[in-house]
Amino acid sequence: MNFNRRDFLKGLGLASTAWMLPRQLSAQSAPPHVIVIGGGFGGATVAKYLKLWGGNINVTLIDRNAQHYACILSNLVVTGALSMSRITLDYGTLKSKRGVNVIQGEALEVDPANRRVNVLVNGQYSAYPYDKLVLAPGIEFIPPDGNYREDLTPHAWKAGPQTLLLKQMLSSMSSKQTFVMTIPKSPYRCPPGPYERACAVADVLKRRKTGCKVVVLDANPSIQAEPHNFGIAFNDTYKGMLTYIPNAGVLSVDSKTKTVTTAAGKFTGHVLNVIPNQRAGQIVTAAGLANDPTGRWSLVNPLSYASPIHPDIHILGDSQATGQPKSGHMANAQAKVCADAIIRSFRGEAPDPNPVTSSACFSPITSSKASWLTASFQYDPGTKSMKRVEASFAEASSATSDGMQQMFQWADNIFADSFK
Predict the structure, then answer these.
(1) CATH 3.50.50.60 correct for 27-138+281-419
(2) What residues does each domain of the chain span?
(3) Whose CB has fewer CB within 10 Å in the chain, the N or C terminal residue?
(4) Which tens digits make up the pLDDT trace of 356-403?
(5) Long-range contacts formed by 104-110: CB under 8 A, 24+ apart
């Protein structure tokens, strides 16, 4: 398979499912109603494309927050290279231009029998009926044993206040102090993200402090994404200041003493960044839809992202268990497949039998250079699963300044394609 990788990277932001065409519904006396829970990249994208392609479908997007803080680029907010405003995305365009009804509220419970969602809005409980329900709530954490407090040992794995807290802790470090971070057991949100954070933190400490150390405690046996470039960074670029320890799953955390006990020993840092193990969002679990063998994620039909338990409920993004990476870009791609399948179902049609999803990730290795990773997945009718297209799977040969420039272009494409 021969292709121009630069064009592939540029196209991923907007054209990961460009084969889909708008599928307008015919006029109906009672337009169908789709409720979307969760306004991240999966939820915002599916709401947008249901309106863009679906004509007279009524779409309601419900999220507890008035805006979304993107995890994409958030490690650069931690280091102070970017401001929070750079990763703050609002729902204004979805409302004004796309016609999505956006409600700030807490979705508490799904009632599949009556096809409604119970929501707390402004202190009042309301039941919202749906014809189709899309759950895209992201992740929840599995707190580690011990005296764990995220206000003392932040995860910063849900962007927002936690991002700023870790930024403040990092900036307050003095010379010859140690930053300790943990990496959860795979699968988790954003496979390259923890290694990217380790590099970003090591870079800023190397440039601004003297004699600081970074200790990376990985619950996995090896680097889970971009092993070539992160391996070079750990063993060469940050040699002598960064220590990478695999098979170091967290056993307990004492947030007050900033000590973590792992399978590889006990470690204490001046800053302790604990990223806990993860599972599907609470509303997915509460509805009994976290039904993969681990009990953490939701099995779905990858042709539509519908639950085999309740076919009118679709789960996408971080909460699903299709084997595709849990990332903002992949959630964006899955959302388009899901939107198309829902529109087809309202027309009495079967979903597209051959969906393809694609994603890219860019990772800053230093303050001026970044690497990248690309992957595409295609539906396999034999196994009824999404299989990685091996010819599409690659990482950059090295971190470059060009990669850093492409990273910001890619991020802006994803932000616009999901929220504008």
Answers:
(1) yes
(2) 27-138+281-419, 147-277
(3) N
(4) 999 999 999 999 999 999 999 999 999 999 999 999 999 999 999 999
(5) 104/62, 104/63, 104/64, 104/65, 104/66, 105/62, 105/63, 105/64, 106/64, 107/37, 107/62, 107/64, 107/137, 107/283, 108/283, 109/283, 109/286, 109/287, 110/135, 110/283, 110/286, 110/287, 110/313
